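lol forgot to send this yesterday, sorry. struct tokens for the thing we talked abt
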């Protein structure tokens, strides 16, 4: 299947100019706005191909080119060569700085015109020293610049970023300019000035390309190409020819020219790929018949970028198996396989193996890859051996994978190739496990410690780590080792069971851990402080305040990493002493968290002092002391520490995983959304009211509780955090509202009427 790309649908992230000689050939640089399919990978095309000119063509699920890399500025790529060539031609007449100034600086345009217009060149004042202003090479240099830079308003046309398919030059190069360039080219040819003739040839090509007869560049090229050396100038000219054919919609000839460009050592690979028009295979075969063997390989390589890599690779293997153009296609093929395996979930180890094996056996045909790697008749055997090993690992042919990796290791040339071999070897070792023994742990630990300090910055360990964690966690789970399953990969439900939380606490407190346990402890998500704090939070919401205080007091001082000493150091901070952002005992008509957080609290409660105050109030309620006020404040405390209140900060904890201002994780909803304890203490307060002001206040507080319980049942328990639709109910005439209407004479009633729009709508109901 050929991927015809609608360029208008591609987001333009950058627009970079590609300078052809002294003119500018512009490319828009697209990137697919497609985050779906983004994944981590342990296969490195950079390490296995190790040729940067192919890097933009590596597979990227998010963008058209790898890493959303814009098309390289060919002018910069050619600039050094151009400056060096001109320096050689001009000799001591101009310095390097002077040549660069006149060729590229906008301030030089007036000086170029002034020099070319002068009858006596020696009398022209220039900002940069020119030793012999009348020298023929100097005159040629300025003549060329007069044409090249004098037409930049046409040849440097800018495209409309958002509608560049329909953009066109508003001006064309004048015939008089083309004739002037042709005369200089013909004279240089007659004078046997090969360098200047070659440069002027390109200028003629350039001017014809931007003329109102773009096709003229094709006929001129066909008439003159045999007289030109096959250098960078020649291929820059051919680039114009490809563009002219494409403008004529003659895609076969355009693609043939682009394949020739792709096959050169010059920096055209990304540009040629971008400009290529994928065609059906039968048309591509016709194009290939007109090209040399290496150029045919280049043609199929570009075709493979847009279509099925396997088909293109097979075509190139049949033409020239040692073609380097195969390599980037093979990396794209394995990346597609890898992306597919990323979609497989860990239901069980056996199921995971079965699904991945199906991908590398049925969804993608891979036997031919393994056979090609065994033959070794390729340009990059290291790449093929690594790919074959990776495939064999997925097929569970683990010894074969080891054999391929041994060959690849012998072929490594750079550090990140050694790392690549190690990463896939580690993957193979882990993937081979259906159970895990102490011997397995010791073997893997040595490999993991090597990987933990990669020798190269481009480490693909970022994917391997989560894979290993998930695989080992599932393996330990299936082997009945719940603690190691949690230690290797946290499960959100683990700490819900008290016995499991206790087991993790005992493990973290254990002083005689083996090296394997120490390794995973160092990577474990939570500390003892996190665990104790989570227990305290759960105990609070279960109204076990004594236990909450006990757990909060067990929290040790925090540790932080000191960058200067490169060590973990104990601080003077404890999670239990973190200050709450608002007074948790205040209850207001309108819940405005930010308003309350903005208030200056004279003596703010910490988490531990808050719990101790709750305990003190509960004891007073139990003793019958000032029951109304204490119960009201306790109701406010439980309300404010819930999702609905002003102190969500109280339950912010790594184990609970709650830090969002919108929503609660599913496993915590019954706890953090619950109004049970707030309702309990408001009802106790209601029984001990002594006047209508108190009765009005409690009625309204219970209305808020009733509203929140409605939200929970109607929306929040289903994860609908933005509420309902236009026709869904957002409030009702709560029982608390009905009770409040009994006290219209109270001050509190009037305050509610002022602040609560909902109540204002139902105030007159009977």
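and heres what i got for the seq, position by position
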């Amino acid at each position: 299947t050929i991927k015809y790309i609608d360029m208008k649908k591609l987001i333009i992230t950058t627009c970079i100019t590609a300078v052809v000689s002294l003119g500018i050939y512009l490319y828009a640089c697209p990137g697919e706005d497609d985050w779906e399919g983004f994944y981590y990978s342990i296969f490195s095309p950079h390490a296995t191909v190790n040729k940067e000119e192919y890097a933009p063509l590596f597979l990227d699920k998010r963008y058209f080119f790898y890493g959303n890399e814009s098309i390289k500025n060919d002018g910069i790529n050619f600039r050094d060569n151009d400056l060096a060539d001109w320096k050689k031609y001009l000799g001591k007449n101009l310095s390097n700085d002077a040549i660069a100034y006149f060729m590229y600086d906008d301030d030089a345009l007036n000086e170029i015109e002034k020099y070319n217009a002068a009858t006596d060149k020696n009398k022209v004042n220039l900002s940069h020293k020119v030793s012999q202003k009348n020298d023929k090479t100097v005159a040629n240099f300025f003549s060329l610049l007069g044409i090249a830079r004098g037409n930049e308003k046409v040849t440097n046309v800018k495209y409309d970023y958002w509608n560049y398919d329909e953009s066109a030059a508003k001006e064309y190069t004048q015939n008089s300019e083309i004739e002037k360039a042709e005369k200089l080219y013909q004279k240089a040819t007659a004078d046997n000035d090969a360098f200047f003739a070659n440069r002027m040839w390109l200028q003629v090509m350039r001017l014809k390309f931007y003329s109102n007869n773009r096709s003229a560049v094709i006929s001129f090229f066909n008439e003159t190409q045999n007289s030109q050396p096959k250098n960078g100038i020649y291929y820059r000219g051919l680039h114009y020819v490809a563009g002219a054919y494409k403008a004529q919609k003659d895609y076969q000839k355009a693609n043939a020219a682009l394949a020739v460009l792709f096959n050169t050592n010059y920096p055209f690979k990304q540009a040629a790929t971008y400009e290529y028009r994928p065609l059906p295979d039968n048309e591509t075969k016709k194009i290939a018949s007109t090209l040399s063997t290496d150029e045919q390989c280049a043609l199929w390589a570009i075709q493979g970028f847009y279509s099925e890599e396997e088909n293109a690779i097979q075509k190139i293997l049949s033409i020239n198996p040692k073609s380097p153009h195969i390599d980037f296609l093979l990396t794209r093929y394995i990346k597609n396989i890898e992306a597919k395996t990323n979609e497989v979930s860990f239901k069980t180890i056996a199921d995971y193996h079965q699904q991945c094996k199906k991908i590398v056996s049925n969804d993608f045909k891979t036997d031919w890859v393994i056979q090609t790697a065994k033959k070794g008749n390729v340009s990059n055997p290291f790449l093929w051996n690594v790919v074959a090993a990776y495939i064999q690992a997925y097929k569970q042919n683990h010894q074969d994978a080891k054999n391929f990796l041994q060959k690849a290791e012998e072929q490594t040339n750079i550090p990140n190739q050694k790392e690549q071999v190690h990463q896939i070897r580690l993957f193979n070792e882990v993937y081979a496990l259906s159970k895990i023994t102490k011997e397995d742990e010791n073997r893997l630990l040595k490999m993991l410690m090597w990987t933990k300090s990669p020798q190269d910055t481009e480490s693909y360990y970022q994917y391997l780590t989560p894979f290993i964690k998930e695989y080992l966690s599932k393996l330990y789970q299936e082997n009945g080792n719940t603690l190691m399953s949690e230690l290797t990969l946290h499960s959100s439900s683990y700490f819900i069971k008290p016995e499991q939380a206790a087991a993790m606490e005992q493990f973290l407190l254990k002083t005689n851990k083996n090296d394997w346990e120490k390794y995973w402890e160092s990577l474990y998500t939570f500390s003892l402080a996190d665990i104790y704090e989570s227990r305290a939070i759960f105990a609070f919401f279960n109204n076990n305040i004594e236990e909450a205080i006990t757990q909060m007091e067990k929290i040790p001082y925090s540790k932080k990493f000191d960058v200067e000493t490169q060590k973990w150091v104990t601080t003077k901070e404890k999670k239990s002493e973190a200050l709450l952002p608002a007074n948790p005992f205040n209850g207001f008509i309108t819940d405005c968290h930010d308003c309350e957080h903005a208030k200056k609290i004279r003596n703010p409660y910490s988490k531990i002092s808050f719990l101790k105050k709750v305990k003190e109030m509960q004891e007073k309620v139990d003793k019958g002391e000032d029951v109304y006020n204490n119960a009201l404040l306790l109701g406010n405390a439980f309300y404010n520490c819930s999702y609905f209140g002003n102190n969500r900060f109280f339950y912010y904890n790594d184990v609970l995983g709650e830090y969002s201002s919108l929503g609660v994780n599913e496993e915590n909803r019954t706890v953090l959304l619950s109004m049970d304890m707030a309702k309990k203490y408001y009802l106790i307060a209601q029984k001990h009211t002594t006047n209508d002001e108190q009765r009005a206040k409690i009625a309204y507080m219970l209305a808020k509780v009733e509203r929140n319980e409605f939200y929970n049942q109607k929306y929040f328990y289903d994860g609908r955090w933005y509420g309902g639709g236009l026709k869904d109910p957002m409030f009702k005439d709560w029982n608390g509202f009905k009770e409040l209407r009994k006290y219209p004479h109270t001050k509190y009633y009037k305050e509610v009427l002022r602040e609560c729009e909902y109540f204002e709508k139902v105030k007159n109901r009977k």
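The CA atoms of residues 297 and 320 lie 7 Å apart. anyway ping me if u want another try
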